[in-house]
Amino acid sequence: MTTLIMPSNHNSIKTRFTYRFARSLKKLNKNRPASQSMKETYRRYHMIRVASYASMASAVGPKRAWSRAVLWKIRNRTLHRTLMKKSRIHALRTRKVSGNPNDLRKLVPGGEGMDFSRLLNETAHYIKCLRTQVQIMKNIVDHCSN
Amino acid sequence: MLRCAQSTTSSPEKYAVMGMDMSVLERQRTVLQRLYQQQQQQQQQHSWQPQEANMNPMFHQNMSNLQPAKYDQCLDEINLPSFAIYGREQQQRIGFACPELTSASHSAVSNNSSMTKHDHQISSSAFKREGTVSNSTRKRKAEFDAEEDCKDKGTEREAGEVQSEITVKTDRETSTNNSSKESIQKPDYIHVRARRGQATDSHSLAERARREKISKKMKYLQDLVPGCNKVTGKAGMLDEIINYVQSLQKQVEFLSMKLATLNPRLDFSIDDFFAKEIPAYIASFPTQLQDTNPTNLQYNPLQQGAISCGVDIAMNPSQMLPQKEGSSSVPTTEVFHDSSSGHQAQMLPTWDSEWQNLFSVGFH
């Protein structure tokens, strides 16, 4: 049934994101173990976060540089796992904001090799997509908690 | 020079009369003949140069100026060292032959010395010529570049004039055909005009265009990021943008954490979501048709919803216009979802309110 519905709403990023994210959540829940340890929740959190980013990027498609970067990062996750951990620790330590465009480059995925005007363009689109992502996730959380 | 010239002209006769060692003399003769030929070539070249310059002064000026210089350089590079080597060899050989030929050795040595002098003179004159030629070519190149610049500027001015003429025409006639023509004639490059007092270099023009582009995008981002309107300055705006992106990413982290902790109920709710998503999409499908052509209103049973949808569309273009620069897909989704939520509220009263709000909450 769902596959029949998809093409009618093919244009909207929001529906595609919702569909993909819900599907991935379902898949994650299927594989959910019975134990509810702290480590397990953290692992689940990480997986859900990655799933949300991946579904957003795949909903946007390969037109945008940031979505391409996100998808590439997720696909080559195993290669970059240690690097990502290190960078995350580093980012947590030095999360001090100054008006440097290089900080924005680090925040927007795939922004390292762009010129400044294109970086701004990608940032605008990324902000929009993040907004919709946050909104939909919030709605899902609200629905689930009630 | 005089003595040298005498030696060059009378040397074969001298040697023939004196009856010296013929091998050495023959070598010297050949060397002198080569020297003579070289002189003649140089003279010929110098005679060629003005002719060529006169033949095609407009078109191949630069080329004709460059060619003799190249010839001279080539000759100097190739011939002069070889001659110098010949001279040295001859000196050595004559030096070896000197004890046998005491009477002729002086003349031979003097000949050799004159030859070497001749070499030096030729080389120095050649260098002088080369220097003058290169200087002249440099000057002419500079002139040529200046002319090219002038021509470019002239063409730019002409293009500007043409554009202004076109705009004047369109203003006068105000027809659709002319505007389409103008759009066709519009060039691919960005046309930048310098105001009074601004630099007209290509670099500064490009830099100015880039800055304008960046400021336009910053303005757009300023509209997008809340609380960014009050901040002035590029650094402050970048600060705000970075903060906003970080906060959004943190929100995503937080929400995914919440979802991870909420897992026991999630299973059923997602099943519910999949079950109830379908009628929502089906209900929202005709509204999409109405977005494209409003004549379908009568075929649709959901006329009230359609009217509300039309209101949404009428309201939204003001929001859509600035957003079209960044992405064309996001504003359309918002329109679509606003309309679909209205439909769901009317058509499906049994619809789960939360899943209905999943799309409609928090739009602007």
UniProtKB/TrEMBL annotation, chain A:
Record-linked InterPro entries: bHLH_AtIBH1-like, IBH1-like, IBH1_N
Entry's Gene Ontology cellular component terms: nucleus
Record carries keyword Nucleus: yes
Keywords: Nucleus, Transcription, Transcription regulation
Domain IBH1-like N-terminal, first and last residues per copy: 11-77
Main location: nucleus
Cellular localization per UniProt: Nucleus
Keyword Cell inner membrane listed: no
Pfam families (alphabetical): IBH1_N (PF26576)
Protein name: Transcription factor IBH1
Automatic annotation (TrEMBL), chain B:
Biased composition (Basic and acidic residues): 116-131, 150-160
CDD domains: bHLH_AtBPE_like (cd18919)
GO cellular component: nucleus
Transmembrane segments: none
Region ranges (Disordered): 109-185
Compartments it resides in: Nucleus
A Gene Ontology BP annotation from the UniProt entry: regulation of DNA-templated transcription
Positions of the BHLH domain: 198-248
UniProt keywords, alphabetically: Nucleus, Transcription, Transcription regulation
Keyword Transcription attributed: yes
Matches recorded under InterPro entries: bHLH_dom, bHLH_ZIP_TF, HLH_DNA-bd_sf
Name of this chain's protein: Transcription factor bHLH
Species, as recorded: Forsythia ovata
